[in-house]
Amino acid sequence: MEEFNETESHPFYASRASLSAIAAKQREMKLFDPIHQRVKIAQKKILYSPTDKLYQAYVGLLSGICGIVEINERLRADPVLQRSFGMEGCADQSVIQETLSACTEANASEIEEAIDLIYQAHGRGFRHDYSEAFQILDIDLTGQPCGRKAEFATKGYFAKQRNRRGRQLGRVLATRYQEIVADRLYPGRVQLNSALPDLLAAAESALKLDAEKRRRTILRIDAGGGTREDINRALTLGYQIHGKDYSSVRAEKLAESVVEWVSDPRDSNRQFGRVTTPATEYVRPVVRIAVRCRSEKDGWKAGAIVSTLSEAEAIREAGLSEEESRHPQSGLLAYVRFYDRRGGACETEFKGDKQGLGMTKRNKKRFAAQRVLTALGALAHNALIWAKAWLLEKAPVLSDYGIMRIRRDLLAIQGVVEFDSQGSIRRISLNPYSLLARHCFSAFQSLLAPLSIVVILGQT
Asked: In the structure, what pLDDT confidence band is assigned to residue 2 with cuts at 50, 70 and 90?
């Protein structure tokens, strides 16, 4: 393997030269500093401090590891990537595992607080202009199956896995920006209605939501968080609500009050109509829309959408097509479409993190250790989303890229990286045979020019 020369510049082949470019930007931002400063793990430093090893795990996530065991081949064997991120080396995966296992619940809370600070410093959702548009927060849970001996691994709902044990991951997503506002871990039997107060508190802390910001924030939730108590709690705090009623029995009764059913233009087996029964059980006025779907086996099954949005607000947020905007019941349709867009928010981001960051493949026996891994995963998710945002203006080809393609394709462009005698990147040469490199070349140039780093297309 090539040895680094500390006294003169020298080019080194890099299997992830584009990730090295992002590393330079992150170092300039001092992205990981709040974690170094606030997380105090009771473990002796031999070669690396405990937070150095957390940093190595984080860089491993960006490089594409699924399990921590992969760090040895993905990061420890890649001195160019190490130096790009300002690392003097990388611990063995077993040593990083020991540090994670040494984390306490207090350490887990410390890293969650540190990541709040990182988000407040760099998150676009934190700087959202509430006077211009609603902030949209999607809130949901997803199952994380794990071994039965893991702490708080209980039976619960895990899609298509009956009698499986695991934990639940609760997420608050700033949907306009695809950013994770808060990720929190819960025992496997927890459902959204019981996790919702904690998730809301975490979002309020990360976003510093005051009364005026809450008034301009839409909570979009599925039926799991749609009990009367959940909705009234959010309404009392001043939030806007757009979600599904928890009770299917109540939804069937509400559907009986619909005077006129309208067929969904996209699905002939789905209809919706305005509920005419007064919503006296809620502490603020709401609109209720009954939605029923027909199946050959069970006939019509109804659900109900509960919303505080006006019809005009729903139309603005729903993203109706030109044809749908001319629909005679476009306002009614907008309430339904806006709820349907949940599928492109939390659910899509969960899927992206499972595929692109291997979210479900890193399971620690100790609950605190898993909380720390969850926090690092949330930071990695946001870092990838920010990387896309930095490049997007000059590389519109990235507009449809999700987490998987950002990590697998955008940040895996080969090239040559050249360092100065202090270990800082001075030049990056991207593989000219890569079509993506050619599309993103000017974007990387613009990103790194303020750091006095030259980016070229050259031979590898």
From this structure: very low
Q: Residue 43 sits in which domain range?
A: 10-107+364-457
Q: Are strands 415-419 and 425-430 parallel, antiparallel or unpaired?
A: antiparallel
How confident is the model over 104-115, as a mean pLDDT? 97
- Give residue 266's identity as a one-letter amino acid code: R
Give the confidence band of 7 by pLDDT, cuts at 50, 70, 90.
Answer: very low
- Of 323, 349, 375, the position where a domain reaches its end is 349
- pLDDT value of residue 42: 93
Do 158 and 275 fall into the same domain? yes
pLDDT of residue 170: 94
- Rounded-to-integer distance, Cα 14 and Cα 339, Å: 44
- How many Å apart are CA 80 and CA 2, to the nearest integer? 10
Q: Does residue 390 fall inside a structural domain?
A: yes
In angstroms, the CA 105 to CA 42 distance is 12
In a domain, 289, yes or no: yes
- β-partners of residue 144 are 167
Residue with tokens 């998710």: 381
Please check whether residue 83 is in contact with residue 19, taking contact to mean a CB–CB distance below 8 angstroms. Answer: no
Please give the mean pLDDT across all residues of the chain.
92
User: Are 46 and 158 in the same domain?
Assistant: no
202-210 contacts at long range (C-beta below 8 A, 24 or more positions apart): 202/112, 202/172, 203/137, 203/139, 203/172, 205/116, 206/116, 206/119, 206/120, 206/123, 206/126, 206/172, 206/181, 206/182, 207/125, 207/126, 207/135, 207/174, 207/181, 208/120, 208/126
Query: Rounded to a whole number, what is the distance in angstroms from the first to the last CA of the chain?
Result: 17
Residues linked to residue 139 through DSSP beta bridges, in sequence order: 172, 221
Calculate the alpha carbon distances from 132 to 129, 135, 283 in Å.
5, 9, 27
Total count of domains within the chain = 2
As a 3-state breakdown, the chain gives helix, strand, coil percent values, each rounded to 5, of: 45, 20, 35
Average pLDDT of the segment spanning 8-20: 87
| Tokens 């250790």 found at | 369
Contacts of 199-203 with C-beta under 8 Å, sequence gap 24+, read 199/139, 199/170, 199/171, 199/172, 200/139, 200/172, 200/234, 200/237, 202/112, 202/172, 203/137, 203/139, 203/172
Does 337 fall in a domain? yes
* 450 and 398, same domain (yes or no): yes
Mean pLDDT within 109-132: 97
Residue 159 has, within 13 A of its CA and on its CB side, a CA count of 6
CATH number for the domain harbouring residue 168 = 3.90.350.10
Instruction: Provide the pLDDT for residue 359.
Output: 85
Does 254 reside within a domain?
yes
Residue 388: which H helix or E strand, with range? Answer: helix 367-392
Are 159 and 70 in the same domain? no
> What are the structure tokens assigned to 134, written together?
């609603």
The total number of residues shown for the chain amounts to 460
